[in-house]
Each structure stands twice: as structure tokens, then as C-alpha cells.
């Protein structure tokens, strides 16, 4: 049983989706970030950065305990442990890695930037928010082209899809309202209908 520390955010959901889709049993510990749960001493022992998600797997490699943070690392840990969602063919695997990186280092940070400029920065500027919203939609346009004629980003369902979906789910209203992106919208509906994703979204909140 893996202990999962999470909250209702895209990063939290990425970890939960990873565990659910990989069929790894987990127990959810929900943190209330607004109330400071992430900065409590007991959680800082698990992730000194005070950020969710984090997992503790008592049955890690060699039967040893593994404590891990960073949603992308948790996703990679889950797929390696289960042997799922990493294409066996080396060329397809490389393609899945490329789109995994696009999701985690391009799209997810842009979505975070929208959040920070519109809620956290001391000076709010609608132009800054619009800049990052446009950047986000441009990045999704690239995914949309890749999805042409494909059900999943790298052909078969892979780490690329599991990494990107929680970002799109968190920005559903913006994506649905955007012109075009027909392939991304159809893919998002396909992802939402997957039993593992649906279970994770319900478990994580
Ligand atoms: N790159 C990290 C980001 C983790 C992160 O920023 N988590 C947020 C919630 S989505 C958090 O816990 N923030 C509280 C804080 O940093 O104080 C990941 O992918 O896990």
C-alpha cells in the first residue's frame, strides 16, 4: 500500500492518476494547503519542500521504503514499478518521453503561471494573464496536431497522456471555450472515460 499525500490540484491529480492507472494500491491523505497542512512538521519530514504530491511506498525496490515528491517523478516511479505506460519499442518510447517532457516542462508550468499571475503576484495585470493563457493555448495547439489520427499522444496510452491530462482537466473551461483544439477536446473526453483516471479524479477530488 502506497501512502499518497495530495490536494485538489493538477500536480496532486497527476500522482493519483499515475497510481490508479498503474493499478498500484494507495491510501489518500488529503492536505488542506490553504490551512498550512503542507508546512506542518509531520509533512515536512515526507517532503521538506512542503509541497504535494508526495508518496511513501513501504514496499519499494528491494523491499525498502521509498519517499518521493514531484508529480513527474511519482508518475515515472509508478510506471516503472508496474511495467505499464512506457512503450516497449525504443522509438515509440523516445516519442512518449518527448511529450511527457512537453506536458511537465512546457504546458504544466504555463498553467501554473496563469494561476500565479492572476492570484499571487502583488500587482495584477490582465495583460500578463492573457499572455500566459495564449501561450497555454499555443502549446495545446502543438498537442492537437500531434493527436491528428491518434487516440493517444504517442500512439498508445503512455506517460505523456497521464502527465498532460490533469493540466487539461484543471483548465477544462478555458480549453472547452477555445476555438479549434478538436483533437485535444476529444482526447480529454477519452482520458476522462478511462476507469483509472475516473477513479483517481474521484479519489483525489
Ligand atoms: N513540480 C512540482 C510542483 C509541486 C507543487 O508546486 N505543489 C503545490 C500544489 S500544486 C504545492 O504543494 N504548493 C504549496 C507550496 O509550495 O507551498 C510537482 O510537479 O509536484
Kindly summarize this structure in a few lines.
The protein has 205 residues and is an alpha+beta fold. The chain has helices at residues 10-21, 41-44, 71-82, 90-120, 126-146, 159-170, 172-177, 182-193, 195-204, and strands at residues 2-6, 26-30, 54-57, 66-69. Helix 1 packs antiparallel against helix 6 (159-170), helix 1 packs across helix 9 (195-204) and helix 4 runs parallel beside helix 6.
Describe the 3D structure.
This protein has helices at residues 10-21, 41-44, 71-82, 90-120, 126-146, 159-170, 172-177, 182-193, 195-204; strands at 2-6, 26-30, 54-57, 66-69. The protein has two domains: 2-84, 3-Layer(aba) Sandwich (Glutaredoxin), CATH 3.40.30; 90-198, Glutathione S-transferase Yfyf (Class Pi), Chain A, domain 2 (Up-down Bundle). It has 205 residues and is α+β, with helices and mostly antiparallel strands. The radius of gyration is 17 Å and the shape is globular. Bound molecules: glutathione. Residues 9, 11, 33, 38, 50-53, 70-72 line the site of glutathione. Glutathione binds next to helix 3.
